[in-house]
Amino acid sequence: MKIAKCLLPLLLAVLVILGVGCSHVDKTDVEEVITSELDLLKNPDSETIQKYISYKELFPDATEETKLSDDIKEVFSLFFQDFDYKILNIDVDKENKTAVASVRLSTIDAQTLAKDFAASLLNTEILEAAKNNSQNTNETASSLEKRYVLLNQLLKDNKYKSVDNDCTIQLVNKGSEKDLWEIKRTYSLENDLVGGLITYLSDNDILPPEDTLAVYLNTLKTMNEEEMSNYLGVESILNTSDTEKSAIASALVEQVHQNFNYEVTEVNITGYTADIKAEITTFDSDAILSAYEQELETYLNSPEAVIEGSQKRYEHAHELLLSIIESNTEVKTAQADFHLVNNGAAWKLEDDNQELGNAIFGTLSTTPTESLDENAVSEES
Predict the structure, then answer these.
(1) Which of 177, 108, 116, 186 has the alpha carbon at shortest distance from 150?
(2) How far is 3 from 283, CA to CA, in rounded Å?
(3) Using a CB cutoff of 8 Å and minimum separation of 24, what contacts does 368-375 make?
(4) Considering the entire predicted model, what is its pTM?
(5) Within its chain, how far is the Cα of 181 from the centroid?
(6) Starting at the edge strand that comes first in sequence, how are the strands of the sheet with 98-108 ordered?
(7) pLDDT tens-digit profile of 63-97?
(8) Phi/psi zone of residue 279: left (φ > 0), alpha (ψ -120 to 50 degrees), beta?
């Protein structure tokens, strides 16, 4: 009896040691599975990506295509190029054959990437709408392929810092073998593995109103004559097949590129609407027109104008205006009000673009030489 009492504590100690040993083995098995899986993301192939992240998952509202280019596969290689992780803790529930691991993930700054993507997508939508002579920016750049191309370009052009985020990985064991431990695929895990990028891309406020307006106005400075004509509704001055007037249109657009600027002075956001006041700086159309009229009058009253004839006077009028526009250095600043609406996906500018066009081109929103055809120049002379 005394021997049994002496052996009892020893037996309990052995059982505890065996239990701890089994638990340790289970944790080791789970750690090996997590390590082998996450290591694949350090140099992912398309098969690995599809195990954890659906191509459609990042852009659920995009129109899907049957065949996607290699650029899409390259996106994730670039995204995960600095990916790393550290297993912090593992808890194993032997009875239910489940395990939970706490892991610290190191990914690129997905929030900054998502904001850059939203700006890039809006820029593309505006330019496509301008090319197609449409004010609807919701119907363009919507394909899955185009969105991944934009994302790929951002990852190539920019260097994003790494950020750390803690996540939870759940596993189940469907047998007694260690290789039967499996990581449960969940939306939360997908989102964690890409640093929250899925959530950030679906955030309709990732690009706030002030930043959204900045994209609209900065994109305007990159447009050519046709795009600016379509976008601002100033066809009479910018959209012309006349060689002389086309040169004038190009010179005016160049003036926009050189002088157009803005400064936001006030932002008021109420729910899904935003009103922004800004000071718009552009070339001084009044100064250009005043100088043009003075020099044209001087020319038309000269003997040369009479001698040269109507055709030459007509050509000289255009050359004179072109020269004054090209040499202009005068600018003016005026206040403009912008109204934006959040449509549930992103902020969009709700504005009369023709009014914006008049604000930029001022008195030159119609060509001064529009009324000066050959007969008019001849009669005035």
Answers:
(1) 116
(2) 105
(3) 368/289, 368/292, 368/293, 368/321, 369/244, 369/245, 369/248, 369/317, 369/318, 369/321, 370/236, 372/314, 372/317, 373/314, 374/310, 374/311, 374/313, 374/314, 375/310
(4) 0.82
(5) 40
(6) 84-93, 98-108, 162-173, 181-183
(7) 765 566 766 778 888 899 999 999 999 999 988 88
(8) beta
